[in-house]
Amino acid sequence: MCSPNDSLKYMISLLKDKAYLWWCTLTTMVEFKRKYVSRLYLGTKKKEFLELNQGNGSVAEYEWEFMRLSKYAQNIISSEEEICIHFEDG
Question: Is residue 39 scored above 90 in pLDDT?
Answer without folding.
Answer: no
